[in-house]
TrEMBL record:
Alphabetical UniProt keywords: Signal
Source species taxonomy: Bacteria, Pseudomonadati, Pseudomonadota, Alphaproteobacteria, Hyphomicrobiales
Naturally occurring in which organism (per UniProt): Bradyrhizobium barranii subsp. barranii
Subcellular location: Periplasm
Entry's transmembrane regions: none
Xref: Pfam families: SBP_bac_5 (PF00496)
Protein name: ABC transporter substrate-binding protein
BP GO terms, sorted: peptide transport
Any one GO MF annotation of this record: peptide transmembrane transporter activity
Length: 478
C-alpha cells in the first residue's frame, strides 16, 4: 500500500484517500451497506430499518446485539452530531459536508432509535449513510481521548476488526473483534503495510511475504498469472480516473476552447487497449450503469478528433505557451506512463505540455504554476452525487480550491441534490455532463478507475466495485 496514514477516523482530513478507505473498511461499520452481490441493493448493517417520517425526517431503528462497548442511539447521534460533524468548528465538518451536505440535525429518540433531519429533501439520503464519513464510533471512547488526532490513532468502533498498532507510513495492525455482531471475523488479524514500489509489492507476494497486494500495474499481470500460486483480481470500478484543469489561475486554460481541444486530442480507447490491455473500459462520460434511471448509455465521451482540436486551438489564438502538467508519477496505477501518453497526444495537436515531476501532492496542488493535474473520483454509493457532485460541485475542494467555477453547473447541482423525481434528476444531470464534457470542461474522464490486486491463489476473495477491501464474514476464505 502507499502513503499509509495513522489517522483512522473517516472524518479526518488526512483519511480521505482510497488507501485510508481500504483500512477503515475493516474498522468501521455503517448503518446501511450496498450489497454489490445483489444488484447494488441497500441492506441493513448496524440498523434494522429506516422510515421516512416526511420529506426531510428519517427514523432509524438500530440492532440491539451490536457491541463496541454497546452500540446505542447516543453513539449514532454523536457520530453525526455537532461535536464531530455538524458544527463548523467540529473537526469533521469539512469532510462531513462532502458526504452529508443536506443534514441539519440528528437526535436519539430512544435507546435504539435515531432521527435524522435534512435541510431540504434529499433523494439519496439513505445511500449517503452507506458512504465514507458514516462509520459509527463509540461516543464514550471518543470523549476519553485528549484530542481528535489522539482519538483517530486508536479509534473504537463497531466493525469486524480493532486497531492494535499504527505506525505512520509503515504498518497498521488490526485484530479480530471477537464480539462482532455479524459473526466471527474470518481472519485473526490483518496487517496493512506500506510498500511504495510496485515491483517490491510483486516481489513480496511472490516470496510469500504478503497475502494480498494492492495497485498491481498492467505490466505486472503476466508475471503474477504465470505463477500458479498467485492470481490477479479486480478490474473496472464505479470510480473514474480523471484529469483536472486549472481554468482560473492558468491564463491559457481560462479559454474553454483550449480545454475542449485538450479533451478532443485524447485517444482514450488506445490508452485502455495499450496500457491496460483491454481489462478496463472507457465509460460514457462521468456516469455508471449502477446509477439506474439517471444513466444514459447513449452518451459518448468527447470523441477523439485531433483535427477539430487543432481548429479550436487556432480559433482560440493559442500561442504555444507552456501548460504545466504536474504529477507525483506513482500514486495512481500506471500514472507516469499515462501522463506521458496524454502529453504526447496533446503535443501532437500543437500543445506545449510541460510534465513536472513533484515529490508530493502539496506541490502538485500548489496554485503557483498550476495547469493540469492527475486525479480520480471515487464513487462509494451508486449515484452521481457520490463522486460527480462531491468532486466537481460548488462545495468541492476543486471549486473551493480555485480551479474552476460555472454558475449554470452549480444551479443544476442544487436541483440534482434535492429533486425527488428521477426524470427531473436525469435531465439536470445530463445537462451538467454537457457542461463537463463539451461547453466548459473543468477536466475530463480518461477511463474507469481500474483497481487490480495480486493474491495467493488459495485465498478466495474479490474486491468490491468500489475498489475497497472487505474482510467481513463471508467475504474471504483463506
Amino acid at each position: 500500500m502507499q502513503d499509509l496514514r495513522v489517522e483512522l477516523d473517516p472524518l479526518h482530513p488526512r483519511a480521505t484517500a482510497l488507501v485510508s478507505f481500504r483500512v477503515l473498511e475493516s474498522i468501521y461499520d455503517k448503518l446501511f451497506a450496498i450489497d454489490y452481490q445483489q444488484d447494488g441493493q441497500i441492506r441493513p448493517m448496524l440498523a434494522e430499518s429506516i422510515e421516512a417520517l416526511n420529506s426531510t425526517t428519517y427514523r432509524v431503528s438500530l440492532r440491539k446485539e451490536v457491541r463496541c462497548e454497546e452500540l446505542t442511539a447516543e453513539d449514532v447521534a454523536f457520530t453525526f452530531g455537532a461535536e464531530r460533524m455538524l458544527a463548523k468548528e467540529s473537526p469533521g465538518f469539512g469532510v462531513g459536508q462532502i458526504s452529508f451536505p443536506s443534514m441539519s440535525a440528528v437526535r436519539a429518540t430512544g435507546r435504539h432509535t435515531v432521527e435524522f433531519s435534512t435541510k431540504a429533501p434529499d433523494p439519496v439520503f439513505v445511500k449517503r449513510l452507506t458512504s465514507y464519513g458514516a462509520g459509527i464510533v463509540s461516543k464514550s471512547a471518543y470523549l476519553k481521548a485528549a484530542t481528535f488526532d489522539q482519538w483517530a490513532r486508536a479509534p473504537i468502533a463497531a466493525g469486524p476488526y480493532r486497531v492494535v498498532e499504527a505506525v505512520e507510513n509503515r504498518y497498521i495492525r488490526l485484530e479480530a473483534h471477537e464480539g462482532y455482531w455479524g459473526g466471527r471475523p474470518p481472519l485473526k488479524g490483518i496487517e496493512f503495510r506500506m510498500v511504495r514500489e510496485p515491483a517490491a509489492r510483486v516481489a513480496g507476494l511472490r516470496a510469500g511475504d504478503f497475502d494480498i497486494i494492492t495497485t498491481v500495474a498492467p505490466d505486472q499481470f503476466d508475471i503474477l498469472t504465470a505463477d500458479k500460486r498467485l492470481d490477479v483480481v479486480g478490474g473496472d470500478t464505479m470510480s473514474f480516473r480523471a484529469l483536472v484543469y486549472d481554468a482560473i489561475t492558468n491564463e491559457m486554460l481560462r479559454d474553454p476552447r483550449i480545454r475542449r481541444a485538450m479533451n478532443l486530442a485524447i485517444d482514450r480507447q488506445t490508452i485502455v487497449n495499450s496500457i491496460w490491455r483491454k481489462r478496463i473500459s472507457v465509460p460514457p462520460s462521468h456516469q455508471h450503469p449502477a446509477y439506474g434511471a439517471l444513466y444514459n448509455p447513449d452518451r459518448t465521451m468527447p470523441r477523439y478528433n485531433p483535427e477539430e482540436a487543432k481548429r479550436l486551438l487556432a480559433e482560440a489564438g493559442y500561442n504555444g505557451a507552456a501548460i504545466p502538467f504536474k504529477t507525483v508519477g506513482n500514486y495512481y496505477t500506471a500514472e507516469l506512463i499515462e501522463t506521458q501518453a496524454v502529453a504526447a497526444m496533446w503535443r501532437a495537436v500543437g500543445l506545449n505540455v510541460d510534465i513536472q515531476m513533484k515529490e508530493n501532492w502539496s506541490q502538485v496542488e500548489d496554485r503557483l504554476g498550476r495547469g493540469v493535474n492527475n486525479s480520480s473520483d471515487g464513487t462509494y454509493y451508486p449515484d452521481p452525487t457520490a463522486s460527480f457532485v462531491s468532486r466537481w460541485g460548488s462545495q468541492s475542494n476543486f471549486q473551493r480550491g480555485g480551479y474552476w467555477r460555472n454558475d449554470r453547473f452549480n444551479a443544476l447541482e442544487t436541483i440534482l441534490l434535492t429533486a425527488q423525481d428521477p426524470v427531473e434528476r436525469r435531465a439536470v444531470y445530463q445537462e451538467m455532463l454537457d457542461i463537463f464534457d463539451q461547453i466548459d470542461p473543468p477536466g475530463t474522464v480518461l477511463h474507469s478507475l481500474g483497481e487490480f490486486f495480486g493474491k495467493r491463489a488459495n485465498i478466495t476473495w474479490t474486491p468490491t466495485p468500489t475498489g475497497l477491501m472487505d474482510f467481513r464474514p463471508g467475504s474471504i476464505n483463506a
